[in-house]
UniProtKB/TrEMBL annotation:
<keyword id="KW-0963">Cytoplasm</keyword>
<comment type="subunit">
    <text>Homodimer.</text>
</comment>
<keyword id="KW-0663">Pyridoxal phosphate</keyword>
<dbReference type="InterPro" id="IPR015424">
    <property type="entry name" value="PyrdxlP-dep_Trfase"/>
</dbReference>
<dbReference type="InterPro" id="IPR015422">
    <property type="entry name" value="PyrdxlP-dep_Trfase_small"/>
</dbReference>
<dbReference type="InterPro" id="IPR049704">
    <property type="entry name" value="Aminotrans_3_PPA_site"/>
</dbReference>
<dbReference type="GO" id="GO:0042286">
    <property type="term" value="F:glutamate-1-semialdehyde 2,1-aminomutase activity"/>
</dbReference>
<keyword id="KW-0413">Isomerase</keyword>
<dbReference type="InterPro" id="IPR004639">
    <property type="entry name" value="4pyrrol_synth_GluAld_NH2Trfase"/>
</dbReference>
<comment type="similarity">
    <text>Belongs to the class-III pyridoxal-phosphate-dependent aminotransferase family. HemL subfamily.</text>
</comment>
<comment type="pathway">
    <text>Porphyrin-containing compound metabolism; protoporphyrin-IX biosynthesis; 5-aminolevulinate from L-glutamyl-tRNA(Glu): step 2/2.</text>
</comment>
<protein>
    <recommendedName>
        <fullName>Glutamate-1-semialdehyde 2,1-aminomutase</fullName>
        <ecNumber>5.4.3.8</ecNumber>
    </recommendedName>
</protein>
<keyword id="KW-0627">Porphyrin biosynthesis</keyword>
<dbReference type="InterPro" id="IPR005814">
    <property type="entry name" value="Aminotrans_3"/>
</dbReference>
<dbReference type="InterPro" id="IPR015421">
    <property type="entry name" value="PyrdxlP-dep_Trfase_major"/>
</dbReference>
<feature type="modified residue" description="N6-(pyridoxal phosphate)lysine">
    <location>
        <position position="268"/>
    </location>
</feature>
<dbReference type="Pfam" id="PF00202">
    <property type="entry name" value="Aminotran_3"/>
</dbReference>
Amino acid sequence: MNNISVSKALFSKAQESIPGGVNSPVRAFKSVGGTPIFMQKAKGAYLYDVDGNQYIDYIASWGPMILGHAYGPVVKAIQEYAAYSTSYGAPTELEIKMAELIKSMAPNVDLIRMVSSGTEACMSAIRVARGYTSRNKIIKFEGCYHGHADSFLVKAGSGVATFNIQSVPGVTAGVSADTLTCAYNDLEAVQQLAASHKGEIAAIIVEPVAGNMGCILPAPGFLEGLRSICDQEGILLIFDEVMTGFRLAPGGAQELLKVDADLVTYGKVIGAGMPVGAFGGKKEIMQVVAPLGSVYQAGTLSGNPIAMIAGYTLLSELKSNPGIYKELEEKTLYLKKGLDEVLAAWGQPYVINQLGSMISIHFSEQAITDFASAGAANNARFAKYFHAMLNRGIYLPPSAFESWFLNNALTKEDLDKTIQATGECMAEL
Ligand code: PMP
């Protein structure tokens, strides 16, 4: 058992001044129980807590740290640019370089606007879709999470699912009424909704690979089917690539899965751990955004120079060395194979879903293809697994409703330790 006395003391102090002691709910370990670990520093694949414990990290700050923590070139660039000023509130050349770099990597992006979070990116993309189509409703999928803007908190994944929040006080019935939901991977349900709300739906927003109910893959034909429904009905297809963007491939899920979106949203990797998001798409659509058009969207810190240089440095590295994606996938497949072996030997039901460097385990007899199947899994068992792993120095997401993210600093030894620890935990459970 790790000594986490300093974390315990900090958590109790934090609760006196921060709601629940955390600035984002999943960090509170509420669904898995126990005390959240307070971090002091991280390097490469390892986190170090305030009690001096070391952990192999499978969260990567929920995605951004794709090349590991405190990645040398990113740290150096931040230090250099911080000395010039941390913000100007006026344009910089860096923003053009960032936009051009993103356009050179991501398909279907003619114009891109930088924001400061994935939430802002998705919220703005929806506004653009509504402005462009002059329609009000959107379709989202149960268990997908697109940030905490009002329209997305209907049957959302991630923390909303973790805490089993059915309806969010503070979100008006009027807003919720404009959000239609379907089960992930249920194309027929989308077809029916599109038919019964003909001419009313502005956009379908989807995580092309879902990561907020664990990792769930799109069934063959699902994304293609959404594309054709959108084409038929004049609906915009929005890929929320906040998790998948620059993670699954340089051009994200659009590139890997070969399906085009009309609008795409980014976050996480795009900012290398700084608060960054972006939304972009075809010129014809994006030109409704102010000041070109009248769909208003703005941000005091949007395109912040420190955030831009951090993201630019990381994306440049990913672009110039696309072999990174192969390495990441090989590591993830190695992990998957090892986990499969120890879990099969354990003999109880489990499911591992994986694509690229996203992977998750559900303790379930049935395939995990949507929110209902993810919710029906033995998530109490996941909580025990999580703690047994944490005690062995392995930091998994503290919820079965989250994908794990591999970073490229992970070594074969780290993966072997993780596999071995899983075997030991299963014997313990
Ligand atoms: N979209 C997806 C797919 C996400 O996973 C998240 C966050 N986990 C968001 C949007 C919201 O991003 P942020 O937390 O940066 O607001």
